[in-house]
Amino acid sequence: AELKKASKRLSCHKRYKIQKKIREHHRKVRKEAKKRGRKKPKKDPGVPGAAPFREELLREAEQRKQRLEELKQKQKLNRQKEQEKKRKLEAKKNAAKIKEKAEEKESSGKSKAKTNKLPDKTSKKSFCMELRKVIDASDVVLEVLDARDPMGCRCPQLEQAVTCSGGDKKLLLVLNKIDLVPKENLEKWLNYLKKEFPTVAFKSATLMKDKTMEQFRKRRARVDLSRTTECFGSKCLLKLLHEHGKTQNKAIQVGIVGFPNVGKSSIINSLKGVRACNVGLTRGVTKSMQIVHIDKQTKMLDSPGIIADPSNNALALALRSIIDTEESGSAEVLEGVDAILNHCSKQQVMLHYSIPDFRNTEEFLTLLAQKRGMLKKGGVPDIENIAKVLLCDWTGAKISYHSQPPGSQRPPPYLTEDKIAEMQECFNLKNLEDENNATVQALKYPSPANSIIFQSAGMTNGTIGENKVIEEASEWEDLEKSKEGEEDDDEDFTETDDDQDDVEEEEMDVQEVNHLALALASLTHDFLFSESEPSNSLSFSLDKTADEDDAYDFNTDYV
């Protein structure tokens, strides 16, 4: 938008001041002119009458004047011609710009269809494509599980795709964030999972060495960062991968897959010892495949998170969906928080957050917002933002909670005994068990009293194929197209019918309408004129019991 010109309006004081200054200046100029004295311009005396050749001189003077006038006219014409040329050039340029804009609009309209087909970097289709690339390119696939809910982090579609892919592709389970669960619970899960796939206990480093670390140490020398950069289970995992590489006699590619916020990128950073991949609390930080060389024999492939299928329950979607909490709606976030609270022990939640007893999720969030000081204007608790913070805490590494493994070992249908044996074939399971025991003994764990008991919802279904992922926009387009197609089919059908069938249908419709009109008239008559006998439906909907009338909600404020 073009900027408007500044206004020329002045205040009266300023205008009068300027006028006074001008008057003073003119007075000064007149005074100086008086002092100097006026010098009139000398008139041209002309040619004296007694001069010889006077007529010739006058003719020459007239000719000179004519030449000067002709020169002035020629210069004027030349100037006009140049201005016309400039105008024509400008007009041509403007016409060319208008044509270019029109062509750009047409090309953009055509290219929109092509660009819609191409997936966005942040779209679900692109995530699926990148995940599929990682699975196809890798010799060993590491499925990262959160130790707090390992069963909820398992994706049956992924496991089936890897186990049934053929070849020598192997699948390993990496149990990450083991420092957030009690020791007994961790041992139970390791014993349960190792019967299906080789499982590695892992605790990734929370703060990696990078360029900013040196400055941080210089500024705050007292801060001890040795504990935050500790990593457990990396030697065991690298040893397993090297052993598999020796059997293959080649450098292997290891793909790291899993649901969002389970710690895929942090595992790569821990193995490399440097912050090679971006890490964050927000979901979907990794958007494409990233290749990180650990050493000459192993190459790690980082992947975006698995997309949770919309058919999953509310708990699975709240904890495992790739949608960021900042972008998602308040209703989705509140449903997720409600599902989490329903699957936890209420007393433990109250103790952890040091909050009094609550009746529902909204009351819990209001109490938590008041405690943490998250208030809107007028002291109203900010429920939406506190719900987002709570979801981030549960998916991040802040809260310690644990779920119990199933009582009986029931492997999924795609995991037969032959497949389990095939997955455990090239690995030394005894050494793996010893290394896991060593990592379990080396760590400090929260006590069972401080860890919240959590009821897992089972495996989470995910979408791996590109064709299975349907974006919201494409769904609406398909619905509109289907509606248009149905309307066209109806029109074609009515056109092809015989005239006799049309007449019969019209007669039937008229009879039905008449019956409905009679029924409505009788109902309205009964409703208006039956004062003594009110209808049962109205009494059912309007009457209230005495208990309901007496009940008063003390949480509501009346103005």
Automatic annotation (TrEMBL):
<protein>
    <recommendedName>
        <fullName>Guanine nucleotide-binding protein-like 3</fullName>
    </recommendedName>
</protein>
<dbReference type="InterPro" id="IPR006073">
    <property type="entry name" value="GTP-bd"/>
</dbReference>
<keyword id="KW-0539">Nucleus</keyword>
<dbReference type="InterPro" id="IPR050755">
    <property type="entry name" value="TRAFAC_YlqF/YawG_RiboMat"/>
</dbReference>
<dbReference type="InterPro" id="IPR014813">
    <property type="entry name" value="Gnl3_N_dom"/>
</dbReference>
<feature type="compositionally biased region" description="Basic residues">
    <location>
        <begin position="1"/>
        <end position="42"/>
    </location>
</feature>
<dbReference type="Pfam" id="PF01926">
    <property type="entry name" value="MMR_HSR1"/>
</dbReference>
<feature type="compositionally biased region" description="Acidic residues">
    <location>
        <begin position="485"/>
        <end position="508"/>
    </location>
</feature>
<keyword id="KW-0547">Nucleotide-binding</keyword>
<feature type="compositionally biased region" description="Basic and acidic residues">
    <location>
        <begin position="53"/>
        <end position="109"/>
    </location>
</feature>
<keyword id="KW-0342">GTP-binding</keyword>
<keyword id="KW-0175">Coiled coil</keyword>
<dbReference type="InterPro" id="IPR030378">
    <property type="entry name" value="G_CP_dom"/>
</dbReference>
<feature type="domain" description="CP-type G">
    <location>
        <begin position="128"/>
        <end position="309"/>
    </location>
</feature>
<dbReference type="InterPro" id="IPR027417">
    <property type="entry name" value="P-loop_NTPase"/>
</dbReference>
<feature type="region of interest" description="Disordered">
    <location>
        <begin position="473"/>
        <end position="508"/>
    </location>
</feature>
<dbReference type="GO" id="GO:0005730">
    <property type="term" value="C:nucleolus"/>
</dbReference>
<feature type="region of interest" description="Disordered">
    <location>
        <begin position="1"/>
        <end position="120"/>
    </location>
</feature>
<dbReference type="InterPro" id="IPR023179">
    <property type="entry name" value="GTP-bd_ortho_bundle_sf"/>
</dbReference>
<dbReference type="GO" id="GO:0005525">
    <property type="term" value="F:GTP binding"/>
</dbReference>
<dbReference type="Pfam" id="PF08701">
    <property type="entry name" value="GN3L_Grn1"/>
</dbReference>
